[in-house]
Each structure stands twice: as C-alpha cells, then as structure tokens.
Write a structure and sequence with these properties.
The complex is a heterodimer of chains A (376) and B (247).
Chain A: H1 2-30, H2 33-58, H3 67-85, H4 101-105, H5 121-144, H6 150-170, H7 172-175, E1 186-187, E2 190-191, H8 195-221, H9 223-233, H10 235-239, H11 245-271, H12 281-294, H13 299-319, H14 324-338, H15 342-365
Antiparallel strand pairs in A: 1-2
Helix pairs in contact in A: 1-8, 2-8, 2-11, 2-12, 2-13, 3-5, 3-11, 5-11, 8-11, 12-13, 12-15
Chain B: E1 8-17, E2 20-30, E3 35-39, H1 46-54, E4 61-66, E5 69-70, H2 76-82, E6 84-87, H3 99-105, H4 113-118, H5 123-135, H6 151-164, E7 169-173, H7 181-194, E8 199-203, H8 207-213, E9 216-221, E10 224-229, H9 231-235, H10 238-245
The chains are: A mainly alpha (376), B alpha/beta (247).
C-alpha cells in the first residue's frame, strides 16, 4: 500500500513539474508576448477548472454558476484598478473629476460607499477572495443544510449567475453596465499594459496556479479529501459516522469560489478589463466543459483541458467562425461519451500503461535505467 | 418525560407518513449491556424504529432519550457523537477505499472541516484499526479495496466501522442477510463479543440466529409492540404465532 502510494505521489509530482516546465519555460520561449498573454488569459480560467475538480469531481457537487465567482473576483480587482485610473488629473474633463468615467456618464456625483474600500490595494485583494467566498458560504449553508443537491443545486447556481449578470448590467452607474469596467491602466503606478508587465503577470499567474494545485493536492491527500469522495458515493454512511455533511460541502463550495475568484482577478490584470459577459450562464457552462474535457478527477488534466479547448476556440473561431460552436459541442459530446474521465482518463487508461510497459522493457535490458523515476 | 435508568428510553413515539401511522405510541426500553432483537413481519415498522432513533426519520410525537438526553430534535451527526451507531440493511461501505481507509475514516477524531484537514493517521489510529480488523476477521485484508470483499465481509466491515466509533448503543439492521451458515456462526460469535461493553439493538428474521444471540426479544406488528420478553416466552405467545411465526 505504502509503495503504491509513494509511486502515486511521485507520479503526481512529476505531472505537476512537467506542467510547470511547459508553462514557465517552453511556452514563454516559443511564443511571442501576444500569444503568451492569450495563454495567460486561458490559465486564469483554469483556476476555475481546478476548483471544479475539487467541487464536482471530488465533492460530487455540480455548479453551473462558477462564472459568478470568477466575475466577482475580477470585478473586485477591476474596481481597484479603475479607481487608480480615475485620478482627478486624468478625469478633469468630467463633471465630477476623480470618479470612474461611467459613473460620471450616469450622473453620479460622488463615489458610492460600495466603492470606498477599493481605494486601497490590501482591502481590494482581500475582497477578491472574501466577497466570493462569503457569497458561496451563505448560499452553501442555505442549500446544503436543507440537503439541496444534484440537479436542484445546479439550477440554483444558474439562477444566481443569471441574477448577478442582470444586476450588473442593470446598475450601470455602479458597475459600468454591459460594457463592464474598462480602461484599466496601472497597479500602484506600474503600467500593466506593457509587454514587460504582461510577461511578469504571466509568470505570477503560473506561479499562483502551481501553488493552488499543490494546495488542492494536499487537501485531496488529507482526510478531508477522503471524506469528500466518501460523501459523494455514500452520503448517509458519512452522516451516520458523525460528520456534518453540509459543513464539508459548504467548505468545498467556498474553496472552489475562492479559486475561481483568484482566476478572475488574474484575468482582469492580464486582459485589462472585466465585463458581465464572464458572469452569466453561458460562460459558467463553458467552464464546466473545460473541466469535463480535461478530466473532472484530475487537477492537472483540468488545466490542459482549459488550454486545449481555448486554443481550439481561438484557432477555429479565426478560421471557421460559423462552425466553432458546433465543433466545440462535438468535442464535448465526443470526449464525454468516449472518455468519461476526460483527457486525464485517456492518459491514465491508455498512455500511462504503455509508458510503464516500455519502461519495463527498458529496465529489463538496462540495469542502470531501472532506478530512474517514471517520466510521463 | 421523567428520567430513567435505562440507556435508551423510547416513549409514546409516533410517526405518520401522510396520515399512515408507521409507528404508533410505541414504548421501548433498552438496558446497559443488553442485546435486544426486534422481529416482526415485513412492514411492521422495525427499520422505521431504527431510523427514528438515529434521526434519519423525525418523530411526529413522543420522546427518545439516550442516557436521559432528548434525541428527537438533534441532528444525525450529533446523535452519532452522543454514542449511537447505526448499520444499514445493505452493506454501506466506501467501495473504492481500502479496508484500512474505511476504518480510518470512521475513527472519531477530526470530524470538523478543519479537524479533518489537520487529521494525522497516528499510531493510536493504526492500532485501533488493527484491533478492530482482527475483531471482524479482516486483519489480513487491510490493504484490499473494500469493493472486492465478499458480501459477508462487507457486512463485517460496516460493523467494524461502527466499532471504530466505540458507540454505547449499536443498532444493526439484518446483519446476517445473505450470509452463509459459517458466516452466520462467526457473526453470532462477533456479536457476543462486542456486546460485552455496549447495548445493541438487532433486527433479524432468522429465528435460529435470534435464539442464539438475543437477551430479550421484541415482536413488532403494524407499528406497535405485540410482545416482549425472553425468546422462549415470545415463541409460545399465541398472538406472535398467529401474525408472524405461524406463516
């Protein structure tokens, strides 16, 4: 058992190291900054996919509204950046200088109370995680205590996504409406629009993603990870072993929300705006598709799934704009039908046995290679 | 309701589903260290009674006191933590986890979210899992995936998971269903051993097995108690013969 576990452990670390090498070395060397920035944008979605692996794959709770938390994280970041971009000097042509331009257009004459905390970076960064986390906590307690689960839970999360996107679009003076929050310029005086800034933000994104995956792997290995799986398959047995199932589900829902929010904040920083088009039902479902294609039980697979679908989207929507949606649907249906565990399932069912097999043959022929660790 | 010396005192309990009274004004008292067997025809309300005690079903009226503490309004996990363990009719184990992990997860420590995050499988957990595995005859199968166990072994594993919690009252719903003659004998011996320091309520149909293990037998019929007492007396009760044993 311990032996199997060790092997499994090193194998998992190897997969993470390989992913990090790809993201931090291969891609920056091989792509120009425009393409790399695009990859950075996709990687910000992969935070949501990693959260969905924990929530959906491990916890068995399907949320079709993760865009809400991605959006809230992104908006918290964007509000800080927007205030910095709206200093009295550069907004002196407005009726009320010193407030964001869209507020001025909507006849608002003072900065709303809701926006006040976002003058300070530490508060804004805290809000990035706390606002979505708190919303997930309230919703989680309300639903899981009442034992809302499965399809009903998924529908509730969709309702929240719809409500929030309607609210953001409707409250134009406070949120920038359907355009979102645009024209973001600097972070504490540091221009985030330059190539150099894009490089730095890309590496910050990759490092954060690595840390997040490590943290999630640690949770999966803890008793909490075991309990999540146990709850997914035998809810009553866990409950009648003395565990409060609702509190564990609330925790993993909050975790997924916080991860999505970090992704949202990184999106805002790298892309330079945030809009309600990332909050609604359609983007939320797209995020689930990324996870399903990557493999909902695999943290690493979810990242590859996100990258692959988005690269496909970019390529196909440039070449065949009319066909793209059909292709994406076909990809989704094909993968789910043929490989319910996604890309990670293809790897562990087909490629890994083949690799191990080959290694076995090599080890037999060469004694020196026998001690080398597996390289997927 | 007044306090009693009983470990479990169920008084005037009634539960109705859309007007149908599955259990009506039922009283049941279980002593410390007692092994009580509940028998009765299908639909008598035996499983519903266990559901009521462990909080899975809520009573419409009446009181359930465990060590003189009212249970009817407590959440399921709180009832478990108070010391009541429940085994389900079909073996309910975590099929994808090893036998050891099944036992480890059932150990009563790290039951909160952050407790579970900080939980470490220390020597005492391992020793306890080993002891329980020996008790249920699965010491050699600790590393085996639980889904690969035989039906009888799964039943024992679930009993073992409850033993990890060391409950003062253990409730088993048809523990020998689907077992071979040999497995039944081993189960009887197991129940004899584990009831030395706890009370048990067992639902069972097999009369030979009941006679073998029971200290006291309760016969249920249509949501009420028909007879109660020693196996011999109950077996010769004409009403019991009429509704249950006669068939």
């Amino acid at each position: 058992m311990n032996k199997i576990f060790e092997q499994f452990g090193t194998h998992r670390h190897a997969a993470l190291i390989l992913l990090m090498l790809l993201l931090a070395v291969v891609l920056p060397l091989g792509l120009d900054i425009f393409r790399l920035n695009l990859i950075g944008k996709y990687l910000s979605y992969s935070f949501v996919a990693v959260g969905l692996v924990m929530l959906w794959g491990y916890g068995g709770i399907l949320s079709l509204g993760q865009g809400v938390y991605f959006g809230l994280g992104g908006y918290c970041m964007a509000m800080f950046l927007k205030l910095e971009a709206s200093d009295p000097v550069s907004t002196k042509i407005q009726t009320t200088p010193g407030i964001p331009d869209f507020m001025d257009w909507n006849q608002i004459t003072a900065l709303p109370l809701l926006w006040q905390p976002f003058r300070h970076l530490p508060l804004a960064l805290l809000a990035v995680v706390l606002v979505p986390g708190l919303l997930a906590f309230v919703l989680g307690v309300a639903m899981f205590k009442r034992r809302v689960s499965g399809v009903y839970f998924a529908i509730m999360t969709q309702a929240v996504a719809l409500i929030l996107s309607v609210l953001i679009i409707g409250q134009q003076g406070y949120t920038g409406g359907v355009n979102g929050i645009t024209d973001l310029k600097t972070l504490l005086g540091w221009d985030i629009r330059t190539d150099r800034a894009h490089y730095i933000l890309y590496f910050v994104n990759v490092a954060l993603l690595g840390l997040v995956i490590l943290g999630c792997q640690w949770i999966q290995q803890s008793k909490l990870g075991t309990l999540l799986l146990a709850m997914r398959d035998k809810e009553d047995r866990v409950r009648f072993s003395g565990y409060d199932v609702a509190s564990f589900r609330t925790f993993v829902f909050c975790l997924a929300a916080a991860l999505a929010a970090i992704g949202g904040a990184m999106f805002t920083l790298q892309v330079g705006f945030m809009s309600p088009s990332f909050v609604g039902i359609v983007p939320s479902i797209e995020l689930v598709i990324f996870t399903a294609i990557g493999g909902r039980m695999s943290l690493i697979g979810a990242v590859y799934g996100t990258l692959l679908v988005n690269l496909g989207k970019t390529y196909f929507s440039e070449s065949f704009p009319d066909l793209w949606l059909f292709l994406m649907a076909a990809l989704f249906i094909g993968v789910v039908m043929a490989f319910p565990d996604g890309l990670a399932g293809i790897y562990s069912a087909r490629i890994r046995p083949w690799l191990l097999n080959r290694r076995g043959i090599q080890a037999a022929s060469s004694v020196t290679q026998a001690g080398n660790p597996a390289r997927p | 309701m007044s306090n009693t010396n009983y470990l479990l005192a169920v008084e005037d309990i009634t539960v109705s589903f859309d007007g149908f009274k599955a259990i009506e004004a039922l009283n049941l008292y279980v002593d410390q260290g007692e092994l009580r067997v509940i028998i009765g025809p299908n639909g008598a309300g035996k499983t519903t009674l266990l559901d009521l005690i462990c909080g899975k079903t809520r009573a419409s009226a009446g009181s359930i006191k465990f060590k003189n503490q009212e249970m009817t309004r407590m959440a399921e996990h709180e009832i478990v933590r108070a010391g009541i363990g429940r085994k389900f009719q079909t073996p309910s184990i975590y099929e994808n986890l090893s036998v050891f992990k099944n036992l480890e997860v059932s150990f009563p420590r790290g039951r909160s979210v952050f407790g579970a995050l900080a939980f470490k499988c220390t020597e005492d957990v391992r020793a306890r899992a080993q002891a329980v595995a020996e008790e249920i005859g699965l010491a050699a199968a600790l590393e085996l995936e639980a889904g690969l166990l035989s039906h009888g072994q799964k039943q024992w594993l679930e009993i073992g998971m409850l033993l990890m919690q060391d409950p003062e009252l253990l409730m088993l719903d048809e523990p020998i269903a689907g077992m071979s003659a040999r497995e039944r004998e081993l189960t009887a011996e197991l129940l004899d051993r584990i009831c030395r320091n706890r009370a048990m309520i067992v639902i069972e149909h097999d009369m030979e097995f009941v006679a073998r293990i029971a200290h006291k037998v309760t016969v249920m019929h249509q949501g009420k108690i028909l007879a109660e007492g020693a196996m011999e007396a109950v077996k010769n009760d004409p009403r019991v013969i009429d509704v249950y044993l006669g068939h």
